[in-house]
Amino acid sequence: MNIAVMYQSLRGGTRRAANEIAKSFQALGAAVGTYPVTNIDAQFVLNADLLVIGTWTDGLFGLGAKPAQIGKLNTLPDISQKKTSIFVTYEISPSKSLQQFEEWAIDRGVNLVHQQSFKVRGPFRKDISEEIEDFTRKSIEAITSTNA
Ligand SMILES: Cc1cc2nc3c(=O)[nH]c(=O)nc-3n(C[C@H](O)[C@H](O)[C@H](O)COP(=O)(O)O)c2cc1C
User: Fold this and answer.
1) Could you give phi then psi for residue 63, rounded to 5 degrees?
2) Which of 8, 61, 99, 132 to probe ligand 1 with, by most ligand atoms within 8 A of CB?
3) Architecture of domain 2-145
4) Domain ranges for the chain
5) Ligand 1: distance of its center to the CA of 26 in Å?
């Protein structure tokens, strides 16, 4: 199974989450490519069995939170019909950004299989390994059980 993990990160927290997601998929035997959204291997991405796309929550800490740097995510090639899991990182609340990120993914025509948020404070290290394992397990289950 080939999995492409793509992320948009400002201070490194979302990159770290993406790297941990990649390691977790590798531990399950998948071949994983991990890329910033602006520097992907398009061939690998378009042939992958599962895409993972993550960004951080941008806003005024409560007011008008949204998925960050959506313009960069829009530079991705045509990913319609691709089985895709999405995630956002956040500090206060992920609900608005995750909902808008889901709308973005649906607008792009992806086959959305799972979505999740991770509380990650940019410059600090926090153990989110259990949540990461939850993300990878649910993503794999969704693409293997439904055959969607
Ligand atoms: C300019 C800015 C605005 C932010 N606004 C919010 C917000 O409205 N709500 C929230 O939960 N987190 C907010 N955050 C926190 C980030 O989403 C969180 O720290 C994220 O993990 C950062 O990812 P990164 O380290 O990959 O850049 C904000 C961070 C920055 C830098």
Assistant:
1) -95, 125
2) 61
3) 3-Layer(aba) Sandwich (3.40)
4) 2-145
5) 28
DSSP 35-52: EETTS--HHHHHH-SEEE
pLDDT of residue 86: 98
What are the residues whose beta carbons fall under 8 Å from the beta carbon of 69, sequence distance 6 or more?
8, 10, 55, 58
- pLDDT tens-digit profile of 60-97? 876 789 999 999 999 999 999 999 999 999 999 999 99
Q: Is the pLDDT of residue 22 over 70?
A: yes
Count of CB atoms situated within 10 Å of the CB of 107: 10
pTM of the model: 0.95
C-alpha of residue 8 to centroid of ligand 1, in Å: 12
